[in-house]
Write a structure and sequence with these properties.
By secondary structure, the chain is mainly alpha-helical. The chain has a domain at 70-134 and 173-303: MetI-like fold (Orthogonal Bundle). It is built from 14 helices and no strands. Helix 3 packs across helix 13. The radius of gyration is 26 Å and the shape is globular. The two termini are 41 Å apart.
Length: 309
């Protein structure tokens, strides 16, 4: 063994010895684990327990039963509720992804050209994100109001066009609710896409320019493939968020007309706090959880292996 190797060997052994004596991270993680278990895990366990009972909010002693699941899943209105939820979620997710990406591309290009108003545009897009759901629903209800003072119908009258029944026509009401939710959630998608765009290696665009690629070709063959992990992760987050949205809908349309805009989250809220059926609401909550986990697993299956890990 050479002298230099002999000098290096103790240091290596010393480093490995120090690594073996590193303190365990679990004492530091225990407070977080306890808080998460108290505020998240315990309520989930309670929901599963209530789902196997016939408890109501009117009091009385509940009994354990398996019939609650069957009774809830056989309700005739559940199929329509699930279809409305699918349309609302799909329209909101696609709209937020597309518009969020478009705004992020505009902001990044404007920053490269140092155009005036880039910060104003980015800030304006974020305003909708910080507005509470109830307030956002009230704002859009004023815009969609079919009375003479309604915002959008007033503009249509000024242009000589007939007013639109934004919230009273079942075929239009759902898309009105989707539009309001896209307005509210696009800012989050814009932030995710903006961060992902800033992380793309500029040399990729330089190589594409040297090959004579057009702007559309760079978008299709450089930008979008590089954004694939961000798009999928963002899709998981906004899908779960959209499935749990009910505050903006209850302020905007209340689920009407009829049940045209009553999504699964709002239906669960009505079952528990208007029909006082705690057991049925627990079953519907489990159904929402299963749908969210299923969609998240489907999205995660398309992630690259390194991003998935």
């Amino acid at each position: 063994m050479s002298a230099s190797a002999a000098r290096r060997k103790p240091s290596i052994l010393g480093a490995s010895g120090r690594q073996n004596r590193l303190p365990s991270p679990y004492p530091w993680l225990m407070p977080v684990i306890l808080v998460m278990g108290l505020f998240y895990l315990y309520p989930v366990i309670d929901v599963f327990r209530y789902a196997f009972t016939d408890l109501t909010l009117l009091g009385g002693e509940g009994h354990y039963t398996l019939s609650t699941f069957g009774n809830v899943l056989r309700r005739p209105e559940l199929a329509q509720i699930l279809w409305v939820t699918f349309v609302f979620t799909a329209g909101s997710v696609i709209g937020q992804q597309v518009i969020g990406l478009a705004i992020a591309l505009v902001v990044v290009r404007a920053e490269k050209r140092r155009l005036f108003g880039t910060t104003i545009l980015r800030t304006t897009a974020l305003v909708a994100w910080v507005v509470p759901g109830i307030a956002g629903g009230i704002i859009w209800k004023m815009l969609f109001n079919e009375a003479p003072f309604g915002g959008l119908n007033s503009l249509l009258r000024l242009m000589g066009m007939a007013p639109v029944q934004w919230l009273s026509d079942p075929d239009i009401a759902m898309w009105s609710v989707v539009l309001s939710n896209i307005w509210r959630g696009t800012a989050f998608s814009m932030v995710v896409m903006y961060a992902a765009l800033k992380a793309i290696d500029p040399t990729l665009y330089e190589a594409a320019e040297m090959d004579g690629a057009t702007a559309r070709q760079k978008l299709a063959f450089v930008t979008l493939p590089q954004l694939r992990p961000a798009i999928l992760v963002n899709m998981i987050l906004i899908t779960i968020q959209t499935l749990n949205t009910f505050d903006a809908i209850i302020a905007l349309s209340g689920g009407g007309p009829g049940r045209a805009t009553e999504v699964l989250s709002l239906y669960t809220f009505n079952v528990v706090f208007r029909n006082y059926d705690l057991a049925a609401g627990s079953v519907l909550s489990i159904l929402m959880l299963a749908i969210s986990l299923g969609l998240a697993l489907v999205y995660a299956a398309f992630l690259p292996k390194e991003d998935r890990s």
